[in-house]
Amino acid sequence: MHNRRQIMAFGLGGLALGGATITGLSRASAKDGLAEHALGGVGDLANPPQIHSQNGLLQTTLRPTLAEVLVDEQPRKLRRYNDGLPGPTLRVKPGDRMEITLENALPPNAPPLRALDTFPAFGPGDICGPVGTTHVAPHDLNTTNLHFHGMHVSPKGNSDNVFLTVEPGSAFTYEVQIPDNHPIGAFWYHPHWHGSVAAQIGTGMAGLILVEPEDYVPPGLPERQVIIQTVIGSDLAAFDDPQQFMSLQAPRIFTLNGQFRPTIRLRQGERQFWRILLANDFQFCPLNFADMGLRAILIGRDGIPLPAPKEVDRLLLSPGNRFDVVVEGAQPGLHDMVRQPYRHGLVDLEERIIAQVQIEAGGMPSDLMPAPAATPPDITDAEIVRSRKVVLGEVRDPRAVFDLAFTIDGQSYDPNTWHLDPKLNTAEEWTFVNTTAYPHPMHIHINPFQVVAINGVPVPDRPWYDTCVVPAAGTLTIRTRFEDFDGDFVTHCHILPHEDAGMMMNIRITT
Amino acid sequence: MSILRLAFAAFAVAAAPVLAEVQTVNAQTCLSCHSVDGVAHIDHVPIIHGQSETYLRHALHAYKSGQRSGGTADVMQAVAQDLSAAQIDQLAAFFGTDASIVQTAPISHLIKASAEGADGRLVYLTTKEGSARVVESRFNGDYFRVAPYVESEKFLTFCSIATMAAVLNSFEDALKRPIDTARYPYPYFTQDNIFNEDNQQVKTFEGVVTDGLTLDQIGLFLTHLDVRPSTIFADENSIEHMRNAIMEGLSDPAVRVILNYNRGIVGQNGSGHVSPIAAYHQPSNSVLVLDVAGYKYPPAWIPMDMLYKAMLDVDTSSKRSRGLALVRTF
Ligand SMILES: [Cu+2]
């Protein structure tokens, strides 16, 4: 049965139903970076479905639904875009426009988990969301919106505006103009409605966005998308229980392109171009390429090309990070792809086999690489107009799950505070100061940043990221340019239960 | 509020109203990063417990004023800038001890301090009298079984978890123990793997870090760890019954005895606490408690009448008295 709102919504979204459907000027992928190379078939990890822009426009519908799906051979409750785990990969070029209708087909929200009248100390100012809960606890888990993570686009209006609300049964059309000089690399889309972010990404809502010119990937170099997700793997009744999904210790199932422990194939000497995305809510994922029998050449981090390719053995993936890596089969054999052990503050996360890499002997050596692409110029001392400290903390708060809320500069998220107020076309240096015993991968929307120091120790190559970890009881110093776009957006911890528990702050770029 | 949160009420810098508490820094905040058991948990974070009080006070003032800043000092600067001089004094007094005594003999200092509080009625195992009682005791088997497995709690609220780990490890191969990756291939209970799936349903790791476990919750945890627990609440039983339960538990090699008491009542610093009982000494009518907060106190012989009062204390979390959990292998 549909209520009036839902009927309206389907009316709006009616022009495009289902993800891979050919709509308007965009088309579902005929050209898959693996299929051309006889990869991604039976016994090999396939890429997600793709939607390409055509004639400068990517027009499609993303339609999240809640359904029971077999993940690790067990039924799990997932929220997915267009019935895919992950959602379809969007392929666009600099200068293109994206016109994406978000059609929220999730079920109506459950009643609030804690009645507000049990907390008489809190007034209406503490309330956010239509049903009256707070900024430090999850609520309205089926209300959603869209964020274009890492993209350098306008945060206003119906562009990358995370302050929008799309209720269950309604629809909204986003229009995102990608600038001509947009960095070349990998980005992603996911929901960003404060209060339901952890629940929605933790149950599967995410998809890759690739921004690149024509002929960026040379023919002969198979492009493999590796989208790592960690969906909540509890019994079905508990999948939406905040006591569970807000916890680091919750059961989480690692999937690659939605597959549980898949096999990835390549031949010795051959190269593949891996677009790795950690599209998850909580756990870090350090990878060791040498252990997988691979040689790895890093060419981009968080959608920003490196000035020159760089050989790497290991990469630390924080929730939200992307790494563009050209890999080469080095050691023939069957190797485990392992999420390496990680010391998460005071908690040791154990190693976990997440996939296998099968390297067959006798390939044809290749030296193919994607086309070179521009790195933004280093942010110099002279450019810095202001230095700030941004203090990350935690507080006891009875409104929060586990009575623990998170803060930035001493306050949990307040939609009406705007004290981070840089000027357009300036650059600033920010030091995130972490007063907690846990690492926080901090993400800043709209503009990438350059890491200049960790715990006060300079980082020599000053890598670009949009999400980088602030060590437990440590500091991260970054520089960022506020270019092209004024308007309002946010910085927050990409451990999404921390974000929903208050670790987010508004930023306003003024002209 | 439960077993160990109370331990810090005395040191919390501002008192109770919920919203005010949110603004305060208390000792527990410090301990989330600084070691509680003499082992550094975060690489660059120093151990402050037992540092000189004077040093700690000066350091906190230097952070507060910005004299110490840059790099990781920014973290302490952010923490210290809102502390008043009085709060700094309180924290320095809590973590610090008089430097001269620490340099000579930290343990005897602690014994001295606590013995004074208890009017000398506690006898620590590290004294001549304390070790003599172990030899004399006819109920000392559990001391030799359990003592080798006692490790300090890794958080201040983990006394129950550290106690369960010690007690369960003491059953050795009579109990199926999990294999911890860091100790592969040897089976061993750690303060992490006590949290199996069933126990996380009872209370999560973070939940226990926040406010520990009640006696009932300890019982529930144990049922999920392949042993049979029975909980005995002091307010429902006489002192004789409690003593008999302890003696019977200590006499049976298949049984271990866990104590939940208020250590403030026996004259030690703190309040709600959990530790294994290791022996009973008839001539002095006292019970040997193997303290899992070994960084704070060595094992102590506690007179039975005093211990009973400490078990009658009401746990504000459960609103019930404290008592014993007897643990039996199948
Ligand atoms: Cu965080």
The shape of chain B, in one word, is globular
Main sheet summary of chain B: 7 strands, antiparallel
What's the mean pLDDT score of chain B?
A: 80
| Ligand names | copper (II) ion
Radius of gyration of chain B: 20 Å
The greatest interface between two protein chains, and residues involved on each side, is: A-B, 37 and 33 residues
Helical/strand content category of chain A: mainly beta
Gyration radius over CA of chain A: 22 Å
**Unreliable stretches covering 5 or more consecutive residues of chain A:** 1-24, 113-133
Strand order, main sheet of chain B: write it out: 1-6-5-4-3-9-2
Number of strands of chain B: 9
CATH class of the largest domain in chain B: Alpha Beta
Name given to the CATH architecture of the largest domain in chain B: Alpha-Beta Complex
CATH superfamily of the largest domain in chain B: Phytochelatin synthase, N-terminal domain
State the share of residues found in helices of chain A, binned by percent: under 10%
Termini separation of chain A = 48 Å
* CATH first level of the largest domain in chain A: Mainly Beta
Keywords for this entry:
heterodimer; A: 511 residues; mainly beta; Immunoglobulin-like; seven-stranded mixed sheet; six-stranded mixed sheet; 4 helices; 5% helix; 41% strand; globular; disordered N terminus; B: 330 residues; alpha+beta; Cytochrome Bc1 Complex, Chain D, domain 2; Cathepsin B, Chain A; 2 domains; seven-stranded antiparallel sheet; two-stranded antiparallel sheet; binds copper (II) ion
